[in-house]
Amino acid sequence: MDASETLQPSSFNDEVEKISVLVIDTKENRIQETDVNGFDYSQRAQWLRAAVLGANDGLVSVASLMMGVASVKEDIKAVIVAGFSGLVAGACSMAIGEYVSVCTQRDVEVAQMRREKRKGTSEVGNDEKLPNPVQAAVASALAFAVGAVLPLLAAAFIRQHKLRIAVVVLVASVALVVFGVVGALLGGTPVAKSTARVLVGGWMAMATTFGLTKLI
């Protein structure tokens, strides 16, 4: 009895250690599985791309449009109406264009899956892996509207003409930097290079629209 009693604590500790190791291993496996599943962006790539591009396009196009109108009209109403019209038209255009584009991509992938199925070279495809045109269109339109509303809000409450232009440029520049950083992080590209490219491109678009509209 004495021998068995002295062995019981040791056996109990060994069992506890085994259970702990098993629990830790199970948790690590679950974490690894989660990381692997979370790192697979194939299901989200389409709408992420549409969202980032839509926000950037909305910001640059509407800010440039407002800058062009502001170059010849000091009336705030004209600038706001032009910006709002650009927001609505651009969001609709982005949604329709993205929907048609993704539908075409989806049709091509479905046709390829059917050809492979007839040849017996692959299993039946999973519809969940196909791009979703409605999802991409909605994401693109909403993102465009979010990007476009920033310069509108920046100019809506400023009456002084020159100050309004400066605020629109400043807000657009800050937003372009944010979009550049987000796009770089999502794509795994160098942040500084991607951000500088987006920022300089936006400046060129606004300056070109302002200068050519004023010239004409």
What is the structure about, briefly put?
The chain has helices at 2-39, 45-70, 76-119, 133-156, 161-187, 191-215. The chain is an all-alpha fold and 216 residues long. The longest helix is centred in the middle third of the chain and has 44 residues, at 76-119.
Number of DSSP strands? 0
Distance between the termini: 105 Å
What is the chain-wise order of helices and strands?
HHHHHH
Helix content: over 70%
Q: Indicate the low-confidence ranges by residue numbers.
A: 1-7, 18-41
Percent in strands: under 5%
Structural class per helix/strand content?
mainly alpha
Mean pLDDT: 78
Shape: elongated
Number of helices: 6
Provide the number of structural domains. Answer: 2
- Main sheet record: none
Function: Vacuolar Fe(2+) uptake transporter.
Protein name: Vacuolar iron transporter
Pfam family, one: VIT1
Main location: membrane
Give your account of this protein's structure.
Helix content is 85%, strand content 0%. With 216 residues, the protein is mostly helical. It folds into two domains: 1-34; 45-215, no CATH class. Mean pLDDT is 78; it is low at 1-7 and 18-41. It is found in: Vacuole membrane.
